[in-house]
């Protein structure tokens, strides 16, 4: 099969669509725990590898603010506020998270310290939609396009389904399941076969 990547202008459009959506800045932390839950096959006693997660999906540059994060609930945010500094622990370490933060309404800190352990409760995706997304669904095609901007897709027929199916596999969702259907919306982008180019 051929390998394809998304065209830069497609990723750019998806990025700004996410900025315009009401998704809290802490959504990456929740997605990291969701991925870890799938990898571990459990919802309790989860490690929280936020540094590796940000390096994999959000790193754009080197320097003091290497991460470009398109999640904000501010109206007309300044471009500078979308950059996330290199000290990810300054946001996600247990000592940095306030009890009333949206992430703490969705996840439970079971054990503090450097090697903290976390848990996700029953139907945590419902809590995530309420506390992290203001009750709205997340535009999954746009999220997948941005997070996988540096990834190649192996397929003979690239489409929006290509990026969505990659997202569900990467983060442990059942494409037809209740968690995915509740938290995410599809059809949010204009991704078609023409949105891709062959990877060489």
Q: State the order of secondary-structure elements, H for helix, E for strand.
A: EHHHEEHHEEHEHEHHEE
Largest sheet: 3 strands, antiparallel
Distance between the termini: 13 Å
Counting copies of identical and different chains, the oligomeric state is: single chain
Total domains? 2
Mean pLDDT: 95
Topology record:
Elements (H helix, E strand, L loop, with lengths): L2 E4 L1 H13 L6 H14 L9 H8 L9 E2 L14 E2 L4 H4 L9 H5 E5 L5 E4 L3 H9 L5 E2 H8 L5 E2 L5 H12 L6 H6 E2 L10 E3 L2
Parallel strand pairs: 6-8
Antiparallel strand pairs: 1-7, 1-9, 2-3, 4-5
Helix pairs in contact: 1-7, 7-8
Explained architecture:
This protein has helices at 8-20, 27-40, 50-57, 89-92, 102-106, 124-132, 140-147, 160-171, 178-183, and strands at 3-6, 67-68, 83-84, 107-111, 117-120, 138-139, 153-154, 184-185, 196-198. With 200 residues, the protein is an alpha+beta fold. The chain folds into two domains: 1-21 and 136-200, no CATH class; 24-129. It has a three-stranded antiparallel sheet. The chain has a two-stranded antiparallel ribbon with strand order 2-3. Helix 7 (140-147) crosses helix 8. The chain starts with a strand and ends with a strand. The mean pLDDT is 95.
């Amino acid at each position: 099969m051929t390998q394809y990547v998304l065209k830069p202008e497609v990723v750019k459009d998806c990025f700004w669509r996410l900025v315009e959506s009401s998704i809290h800045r802490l959504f990456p932390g929740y997605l990291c725990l969701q991925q870890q839950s799938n990898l571990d096959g459990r919802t309790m006693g989860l490690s929280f590898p936020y540094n590796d997660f940000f390096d994999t999906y959000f790193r754009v540059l080197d320097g003091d603010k290497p991460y470009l994060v398109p999640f904000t609930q501010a109206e007309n945010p300044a471009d500078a506020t979308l950059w996330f500094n290199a000290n990810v622990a300054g946001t996600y370490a247990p000592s940095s998270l306030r009890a009333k933060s949206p992430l703490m309404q969705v996840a439970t800190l079971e054990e503090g310290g450097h090697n903290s352990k976390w848990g996700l409760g029953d139907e945590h995706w419902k809590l995530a939609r309420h506390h992290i997304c203001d009750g709205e669904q997340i535009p999954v095609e746009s999220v997948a396009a941005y997070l996988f901007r540096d990834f190649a897709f192996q397929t003979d027929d690239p489409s929006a389904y290509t990026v969505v199916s990659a997202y569900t596999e990467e983060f442990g969702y059942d494409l037809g399941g209740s968690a995915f259907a509740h938290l995410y919306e599809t059809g949010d982008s204009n991704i078609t076969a023409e949105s891709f180019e062959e990877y060489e």
